[in-house]
Amino acid sequence: MAKHSSNSKLTFSVPTPAVAAELTDLAMRSKAHWGYDEAFMQACRPELTVTDEDLANADSYYCIAQLYESLERKLIGFYKLQVQTQQRVELDALFVDPKYIGQGIGRVLFNHAEGFATALGASEMLVQSDPNAVEFYQTMGGVVFGETASGSISGRQLPVLKFALGSEGTLNR
């Protein structure tokens, strides 16, 4: 587990195409944190791959979290919001570098995504969750309301959670 010092600074920014491969690598490492085998991970690779075109899509909003310590930059997480309708967005991705899992980075990323979705005018956010992450999303205020088929693994169902958004967010956290 990596610890960050008091002189470190966490920043959020829009990624450039230059980091697409780095985002893909981070997504793969984060997904692998749950103990999935190599065959499973390779089946997920196409869905977890971030391309230049993905980053340029006008209906998608990517945000990266970087930790600066001294002069070193570390990409420690990212999320992707996908606009579905004027009132609904999907949190299509939220990944944290495994070295930083359990340190509150996921919560910070989620809160940032929630605030951005609210600023876009959305009143509802959906998440198709990895089964291992459902508890996290429930802690963040999500309610499981259905399932959807995995885009990577035939026969696998993924829980779908719903978050009500507003000026106060989903919870007073």
UniProtKB/TrEMBL annotation:
CDD domains: NAT_SF (cd04301). Keywords: Ribonucleoprotein, Ribosomal protein. Transmembrane segments: none annotated. Coiled coil: none annotated. The keyword Ribonucleoprotein applies. InterPro entries: Acyl_CoA_acyltransferase, GNAT_dom. The keyword Ribonucleoprotein applies. GO terms for molecular function: acyltransferase activity, transferring groups other than amino-acyl groups. GO terms for cellular component: ribosome. This is Ribosomal protein S18 acetylase RimI-like enzyme. The lineage of its organism: Bacteria, Pseudomonadati, Pseudomonadota, Gammaproteobacteria, Arenicellales.
